[in-house]
Amino acid sequence: MEFHKICVLGLGYIGLPTASTFATHGLSVVGVDVNRRVVDVLRDGQVHIQEPGLRDLVQAAFQSGNLLVSQEPQPADAFVLAVPTPILADKRADMHFVTAAAEAIVPVLRRGNLVVLESTSPPRTTTDLLAPILERSGLRAGEDFYLCYSPERVLPGQILRELVENARVIGGVNPASAEAGRDLYQVFVRGEIHLTDATTAEMVKLMENTFRDGNIALANEFARLADRFDVDVWQAIALANLHPRVNILRPGPGVGGHCIGVDPWFLVEAAPQSAQLIRQARQVNDAQPEFCVELVERALGGLSDKTVAALGLTYKPEVDDLRESPAIAVAQGLAQRGARVTTFDPFVPQATAPGCTAAPDLQTALTGAEAIVLLVDHSQLRQLDPRQAAAWAKGRVAVDLRGVWRAADWQAAGFQLHRLGAPPPAG
Ligand code: SAJ
Question: Is 205 a residue of the active site?
Fold first, then answer.
């Protein structure tokens, strides 16, 4: 099947790079976002998302003359849905963006079109939620138009490269739909394209992120056990990972972002009795910020009125994304227990956590601090020279929740370095 014009619905972390990449590969693309501000910002030549290389890619897409942005979808050969699928407070999937995007397509859907859902979704969303809405057009999914699920699998921070290079899974409501999906994505995907059915493709995506969440939960539980038995979890994991069939991930303050902490709940909601381990892993990771707050409290011998510099706020290193960040939960928890918390994140210096104060730079954050807590291992924070920290800080307590600061260096600078999942420093 040949594609000349496509509509990409949702111009966020996935939709904007995808729309721009299709445009720079010669397709005529209408990027659609219901948010007027997003459309205005893009028309203004700006980009509302921070991702390495994205600004240049979007500019190239506009300069090619192939990218238009609009609040409304237009008739096209294919429609790609890349809208958010967050969870509600009760951990159920919030599918209203998918529903709304599908409803917006109905009036412009034509015989022979392809519709692809990329948003991470509960099993059977494509067949049981999306198809019935699209069939309000009077056309039948798989017969009159092609319908696929093809999950985005790109890592924030590496999106542009992974979009093109990663293997792609495309699941159709019938084989002809999957093949139509392949014809679309092979416009720019250089990784292998694997065809399957729509529900399998939905499960693949959920299984990938659930696997990672479970592995991190295990690492976090190992950190708690190591704490209990005075073992250095970092050394123990490094040694265990020498086994050819073991690859334990890293403990930390918890799991953040809009994917790994969210997607496993879609399986729990869909089949609670069959997803008990998955639920438990989520609960372990969600409890990890509190465990870290208690670690800092122990290190300081109480938090009340203590001045704490909390370094890093984003959900992981080298990104500016604050969504569901466990670092924010830890900083907030410290403040709730009475500490005076100053936060600093080099990627988002204006941001802070509830009850905390933002410092514009590292020196301001550390000045007068009784304890320094590393929450996110951005390279600037990882490389913090303990002698410099000693010159600015008031106290000599440091807490490394990422396992990246060298104990010997910090001790040499006069600090007591406490590390997550490691015995407390001597003395
Ligand atoms: N984390 C740890 N320990 C680790 C690894 C990660 O505590 O060893 C934490 C991070 O600090 C962060 C969270 O987990 O808070 C998630 O970060 P991440 O880098 O593992 O993943 P995301 O959310 O940025 O991207 C994931 C990726 N999925 C997998 O690696 C299986 C990505 O490929 C997906 O496309 C993305 O989710 C998504 O959009 O679903």
Answer: yes
Residue pair 368/394 in contact by the 8 Å Cβ criterion: yes
Q: What is the pLDDT of residues 302-321, one digit of tens each?
A: 999 999 999 999 999 999 89
Q: Per residue in 191-230, pLDDT tens?
A: 999 999 999 999 999 999 999 999 999 999 999 999 999 9
The length of the chain in residues reads 427
Say what the pTM is: 0.94
* Residue owning the nearest CA to atom 11 of ligand 1: 316
Hey, whose CA ends up nearest to atom 29 of ligand 1?
209
Cα(10) to centroid(ligand 1), Å: 22
- Domains belonging to the chain, first-starting first, are 5-198 (3.40.50.720), 281-419 (3.40.50.720)
7 belongs to the catalytic site:
no
Of residues 7, 148, 205, 306, which has the active-site annotation? Answer: 205
Helices (H), 344-406: 362-366, 379-382, 386-392
Pairing of strands 146-149, 168-172: antiparallel
